[in-house]
Each structure stands twice: as structure tokens, then as C-alpha cells.
Amino acid sequence: MPLVRSDKHKQNESVTQLYSRYDKICPAEPEHPGWLGWSESWSGYEEVLDKNEFISKTCNEQIAWLNDYKFEVGWRKPREEDLAYSFRQIVSEYPDKFASNLKSFLQLRRNGDKLALLQGFKNAWESGKIFSWDQAFEFCLAIVNESEFWTRKISGESYDYRRAFVDAISHLLIAGMGKENNTFDRTLLPQAKDLILLLAREIRNTTWDEHQPLGDGLNSINYCVFRVIVTYALFYAKTLQPKAGTKWETEIRDYFEDGLDKTSNPSLSFSFCVGLFLPQLRYLDQEWVDSNINRILPKEKDEHWKSAFDGYLTGGKRYKEIYLLLKTNGHYDKGLQVQADSKHLIQHICLGYLNGEEELGNRQSLIEKLLRKENNDIICEIVHYFHTFDPKIQRNLAPKIISLWRTVYNLLNNKTDRSKYAEGIRNLALWLDLVDRLDDEIASWLKFSVDYIHNSWDTHLLVGSLLKYVATVPKQVAEIYYYIVEKGLYPEFQEKDIQEIISELFERGQQDIGKAICNLYQSRGYEFLKGVREKYDSVQSTKR
Asked: CB under 8 Å to 505, separation ≥6 — which residues?
């Protein structure tokens, strides 16, 4: 070892002899001397291919080179995924070098290399590189028409290349149709349709995991294929602009029509995807969607209904026409029965209230039905959702908020077990930001919320809101602030804002409460209001 070989140890003959003895037995140099244990790990990919050298080869030479590549076993030795990664990077950068001879690459022996080719073309197109799509369609069709492709995993036991290929083909097609200024030539639409419908038919006839429709819906191969079908239908509609009321082709409509027959297609993820893409389908064919809405969401089949409604809510964005369509057909009522605490369901109903489609005081209104659930999580979500709105943009928000605040306050104030709703009651104070006035009624609501605030940190947003009103309604602000500190809560975040509030109270006739607040702070050891009090006392002394 280096230490033993150093000059200061040369005089120790016994050490030198022992080292020589064991060095003959094992002459290897220890990599981490002095450590009892050592481990290493690494992630990522190793660059296996020399880009310039590989590009300079002919197509057949490239195929042979990839097929004949020998992998060594050992630490940090190139793996199959490293080779595939390197190949994908080169295809992404030079897609035109491969597109003209793409069918030849069907001779590649490893599925990972074929997959890398498809992924490389997708990356290239998304980055704005241009290549011919003719052979890309033939290449994809050849893969999915390969013997036993749909009946078994193509290769290996640990990785499902069938799923990976369908995913890669779907994403390649979506890339080719996804942006208006970067699409493949519309003359290739028939080839695209044939490939997409082939994927759709085979997926329907293939057994996939259906145990978790929501997770399976967004992450499944069904979702990939469904998304590419919808993307194709929208691309077709925008490209050819059919004049009839329906904007999709008969074959595409028939695919969806067949999917609604639950006796022949019991797929939960199909139901999820129809719900997820309901706005797009209604754009393509409003009459078909409206007339089939109760087949899309079959209330008599709970699992399929829930999958479709979950998909619809997962889409997030709310469209008034679809909202009213589902409401009229009782689907929001069913949603309130089975999943009233769903965040997106609550948000849809809140928007309905904000837009005048739901009203307080009407027991048949969805907002009233939602509140009658008397659930703290629901109230918290309502409070949070409205608090995300900007009152400067939503000018009609304040009257709606005040009416809803009054309703929620009356609902909760009449409860004997209000502690169950503590979080919701506490969060209601956040709505002071959204209203356009602070009067005695709203002040009483704020005090109601303060009763359920348990630490000073939770008051900092309320203090910030009070600052906005202190110049116009100092009496109400003084009463609320004194109520806060009298409860043993001493806001200290944003000291400058607190000092400004107390200074305004002194300036606007609320000296007694201002002094009382300063005294309470000082009794607890807080000194940052001392200067405010001394400044006021100095002014008063000067006046006398």
C-alpha cells in the first residue's frame, strides 16, 4: 500500500516483510483502503455509439453493426439499454438518414433497437426536424402485424415490448398530428387511419389489467390508443373540414359506438377514456354524444358509470354545455351520492354557482345539495377553490362570496358539534380577500373563524387582508385585531404590515384599542410595536 511504501516506514523491517509476503499472494492494489465496506451505484445511460462513425456507415452496415454488437458482463459495461439509448439519440438528430431505408431496419434482432428507432423519429419530429412518413407507416404496420405480436410478449420476460411498441407508435402518430404547423402530409391520412384502427381493434381483443380503472385509464395502453384515435379524428376534422354536422368518419364513430355496448366490450378503461375525452367527442359529433350520454355514463352499471365520470372529472376543465347536459340527466346528482368529496366535482359545482347555473336557497340546486353533505373536507375545498380566484378579474365574485359565506356561516354556527368543522371554519377567514367590504356582519364571521385558529402563524393571511381595510373601516379592523390577540394569538409575521395597521388605528380614532393591543404584545415580550406606541405618545405629549 502507498502508506507502507512511504519513506517513513522503510525502517520498519517487520512491516516491510509482511507487506512483501502478502503482496505476492494478492498483488492487486486496494481501491478504497481503510474502509471496512464500500458500495457504488450509478444511473443513466452510457454513450455506446460514435455518432459520426455510425452515420458514415451504409444502412446494411448499421444494421449489421447493431445486430453483431457484443455485450460484456461487468460493472459499468455497456448494456442493451445503453446501445438503444445511443441509437435513439442519433436517430433523433439525423432522422432523414434513416427514413428512406426504414423498412430495412425490420431486420434488427433486438426489439429495444426497433423501439429506439420509433422513439427517435418521434423526438425528431417534435423538435422540428422533417422526414418522409411513408415508410414510417409501413414500418409500424409491419411490427404490429408480426406473427404472435398480440398473443404474447415479443421478447424477454421482464419487459413487455408489445406494450412499449404500441405506446411508441401511438406517441409517434400523435407527434405527427399534434401541432397545426408540424403535421405529416394529409394524403397519408388513410394509412394513419388503417394503422390506428388496427391498434384499436387488437387492443379491444387483448386482455389488459382492469383492476384499477383510474390508474389504468391514464397509464394504460388503452389510453394511448384512445388518445391517438381522438387526435386523428380532430386532425381529420380540422384538415378536411367536413361540412356536415358530424366531423368524424363513419369508421371512427363505429369504434366508439361498439365500445358503448358493455356486453361485448366490458372495458372499464374504455369508459374512463370516453369520459376523459367527452369535450372532444362532443366537438366531433354533438348529436351523437347528447343522444348517447346515458350510454356513455350508464347509471345502471355502477363500475362503468364511475369510470366514465372519473374520466370526465379528471379532464379538469368544465364546459357549460356538458355540465348542463350531465346535470339534466342526473349524473351530478349520482356523483354527489357516491363521491361528493371529489375535488373536481366540487369545483364544477362552485363554477356553476359562480356562473348563475346554481343558486342558494333552492334545495334542488347542486350547490345546496353539496352544502347539505355537511362535510368538513367539502367546505375546505370550496373555501380553497374560491380563494384561487383573482377578485380583480372576477368582478362578480364578491356578492356571490358574501352570500355563500353567510349560508356556510349560518349552517355551521347552528351546529352543536362545530369542532368537527374546525378546519373549514378557520379557512373561511381567507375569503376576506375576495369581498369588497368589511362591515359588522362580516366582522362577526371573522371572529367566528378566529375561535378555531390555534396558532399565530395561521393568522398571517388574515392580518394581510385587514391591512387593506384599516384606512376605511378602522373600527371593525380594531375589534377583529383585538379579538385575535385577546384569544392569545400574537401575529408576528410581516412585522411591517402589523406596525402599519396599529399606526392607522392610532391615526383614525382607535387609540384605546391600539394601546391595548400594544400592551398585550409587550406583556408577551414582543417589542416590535414599542416604537409605534412611543411615536403616538410623543405626538400626544407635543399636542398637550
From this structure: 470, 474, 477, 478, 481, 511, 513, 514, 517
Which residue type, as a one-letter code, is found at position 326? L
What is this structure's pTM? 0.83
Q: Using CA atoms, how far apart are residues 98 and 247, in angstroms rounded to an integer? A: 36
- Chain-centroid distance of CA 159 in Å reads 26
The series of mean pLDDT values per 10 residues for the chain, 544 residues long, is 51 75 78 66 66 93 93 70 92 94 94 95 95 94 88 64 91 91 92 95 65 54 90 92 82 93 79 94 96 96 93 92 98 95 95 95 96 94 92 80 97 94 95 94 98 92 94 97 96 94 96 96 94 84 61
Phi, psi of 310 (to 5 degrees): -60, -45
Half-sphere exposure of 17 (CA within 13 A, CB side): 3
Burial class (CB in 10 A: 0-12, 13-18, 19+), 295: middle
Of 422, 345, 431, give the one whose Cα is nearest residue 387: 431
| 25-42 residues labelled b (16+ CB within 10 A) or e (exposed) | eeeeeeeeeeeeeeeeee
Return the closest-CA partner of residue 408 out of 438, 429, 436: 429
Query: Identity (one letter) of the amino acid at 480?
Result: I
Cell triple for 474: 378602522
> What residues pair up with 179 in beta bridges, in sequence order?
182
DSSP 29: P
Q: What is the DSSP letter of 303?
A: H
How many whole angstroms separate alpha carbon 232 and alpha carbon 277? 13
C-alpha cell at 110: 433486438
CA dihedral 298, 302, 305, 306 (to 10 degrees): 170
